[in-house]
């Protein structure tokens, strides 16, 4: 039975404890960044930030409303990134049977920059990043070391508001549905983002685009089915890599 996250954005205060806890657990270095006129920092996911609390502000009527979105890999049930990476180099992306965690392995450092872009484009949520120093692909790993030791992911452990939840998939789905029913009483457009396709289930109180361009799956211009069909065809450069490996 895979594990899932339930991320209830209606409870998020954007304290960024989750973002920091992730950096601390993985001992990721600081980023050189700059002020872009928003509280969001750094401006985007990067090789040293597997988790990013996104801030969006919107003028609704005469009121400014904040939308907070703690972004991370969704640990897709059938991960397109794995399908794409397999056509380039098998074993660069794996999925753990017990937890459903999708992991970029050390082998991913052998994937060229051009082929990395192909893997990145396959992700409906724009998650994969590449460490230019090591060549390795990076993203959230579901804190697999902690979870295998019976601990909560670091970002869940520190969240003070109940936004971040983690456990058995059935349990998280039930929690999400229950909370959705409650939130819909005051926010009729509330929804669960792609809950049947991913192991990181977000509750959004409003239209997804108000939170983040990739808060729900974006596979433009092709649909999800076409994407999976295309991944079954080996790429020309993939055959070359297979011969080398
Ligand atoms: Fe939001 Fe919790 Fe992260 Fe704070 S720790 S930003 S409340 S998800
Ligand atoms: Fe892969 Fe993107 Fe899905 Fe994460 S969200 S498992 S990187 S396709
Ligand atoms: Fe970071 Fe672990 Fe949370 Fe993923 S599960 S965002 S690796 S702290």
What does this protein structure show overall?
This protein has 245 residues and is α+β, with helices and mostly antiparallel strands. It has 8 helices and 10 strands. Strands 8-1-10-9 form a 4-stranded mixed β-sheet. Strands 2-3 form a two-stranded antiparallel sheet. Strands 4-5 form a two-stranded antiparallel sheet. Helix 2 (80-86) runs antiparallel to helix 3 (113-122). The longest helix is centred in the last third of the chain and has 16 residues, at 169-184. It is globular and about 50 Å long.
Q: Give the low-pLDDT segments.
A: 220-226, 236-245
The assembly state of the depicted protein chains is single chain
Q: Percentage of helical residues?
A: 25-40%
List the bound ligands.
Answer: iron/sulfur cluster
Q: What top-tier CATH class fits best?
A: Alpha Beta
Describe the biggest sheet?
Answer: 4 strands, mixed
Q: Quick one: how many beta strands?
A: 10
Helix/strand/pairing class, anyone? alpha+beta
How do the strands line up in the largest sheet?
Answer: 8-1-10-9
Number of helices: 8
Shape: globular
Q: From the alpha-carbon coordinates, what is the Rg to the nearest angstrom?
A: 18 Å
Question: If you average the pLDDT, what whole number results?
Answer: 91
| CATH fold descriptor | Alpha-Beta Plaits
């Amino acid at each position: 039975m895979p594990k899932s996250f339930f991320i209830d954005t209606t409870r998020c205060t954007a304290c960024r404890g989750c973002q920091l806890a992730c950096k601390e657990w993985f001992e990721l270095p600081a980023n050189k960044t700059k002020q872009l006129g928003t509280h969001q920092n750094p401006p985007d996911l990067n090789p040293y930030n597997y988790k990013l609390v996104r801030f969006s502000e919107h003028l609704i009527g005469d009121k400014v409303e904040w939308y907070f979105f703690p972004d991370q890999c969704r640990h897709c049930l059938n991960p397109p990134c794995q399908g794409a990476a397999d056509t380039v180099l098998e074993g660069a992306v794996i999925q753990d049977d017990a937890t459903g965690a999708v992991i970029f392995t050390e082998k991913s450092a052998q994937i060229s920059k051009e082929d990395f872009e192909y893997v990145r484009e396959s992700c409906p949520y724009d998650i994969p990043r590449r460490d230019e120093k090591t060549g390795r692909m990076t993203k959230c790993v579901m804190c697999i070391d902690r979870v295998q030791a019976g601990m909560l992911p670091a970002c869940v452990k520190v969240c003070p508001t109940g936004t971040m939840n983690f456990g058995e998939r059935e349990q998280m789905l039930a929690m999400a549905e229950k909370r959705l029913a409650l939130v819909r009483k005051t926010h009729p457009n509330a929804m669960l983002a792609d809950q049947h396709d991913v192991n990181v289930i977000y509750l959004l109180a409003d239209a997804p685009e108000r939170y983040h361009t990739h808060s729900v799956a974006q596979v433009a211009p092709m649909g999800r089915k076409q994407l999976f069909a295309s991944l079954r065809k080996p790429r020309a450069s993939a055959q070359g890599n297979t011969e080398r490996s």
